[in-house]
Records
---
Amino acid sequence: MSGLMTDFRAFIMRGNVVDMAIGIVIGAAFGTVVKSFVSDVLMPPIGYLIGGVNFSNLFLVISPGTTPGPYETIALAQKAGAATLNYGAFINTVISLIIVAFAVFMLMRGIMKMRARFEKPQEPAAPTTKACPRCCSAIPLPATRCPNCTSELEAG
């Protein structure tokens, strides 16, 4: 059992696991901020511009509840026991996804540009093989005889 705990501790303390955990926590916090931005800042003006529509309250009644509709809000429909298709909440979620994806894209683009600026271009590796003039197979540079066709080669 102690070997299992030792292995587990070594797994958890690896750098990439800790980095992943930190990324998940920061991502969750970022997602909360984006959700608030979409539902509280972005969608109200868009809804106002297209006629005062509150996207988070757009829904379709699939089956009525115990109290007959129409229902003004999702909360009232669900309180009455109606089954609803909440497509407005889905629209908000899709917009949130697009914003998060764009933010991640911009972050990665910046990281790649910074990395390219600081990294030196790599020199191509020197060749380690040459082609045999008789059989065209790849052979080591210092070879004086081809291992495939046994023809003698010039040194170098």
---
Amino acid sequence: MRDLFTEIRGAALATLILAAVCCGAYPLLVFGVAQIAFPAEANGSLIVAPDGSVLGSALMAQGFTGDGYFHPRPSAAGANGYDAASSGGSNLGPTSKKLADAIAARVVAYRAENGLVPDAAVPADAVTASGSGLDPHISPRNAALQVPRVAAARGIAEDRVRALVDKHTEPPTLGVLGDAGVNMLTLNLALDAEARGNP
């Protein structure tokens, strides 16, 4: 019986020590290092306005729809899309008729809103949602096709809009992982800042 209590005491002590290290000390250490080395990223890559209000996160898309804004990828996150509390895709497979019909409708709408000819090639990211439904990036080709619409709606030169697109285009991670992408949220905020005379 004494051996049993010794085993139980040893197991309980080991559990308490591991809980203190793994659930207390280690998370606090990681949190502290992140706050010192990567404070912006550790706090959600938030974009803060001059008045201190949070405009969003550079890591999450928002549903811009106006002609004067670059439009994000479609989103299946939540009932109306772009819901950070309901991150996820539609889970429709490549043989799904519902997915095929949705993409076909999006292609027609994309061509119409951007003044493209009926048989113009449309970038895949313009008509398909990302796995999370919250990807803030669009492809450079997608952004380039939206430039004329945005420039016309804002009454500014297309070259100026293209320059902003270039400025907000992020290269592949480490130069080789993934593709270049345009951060649609920071780009739209830059357009608004320029319109206010704060480029």
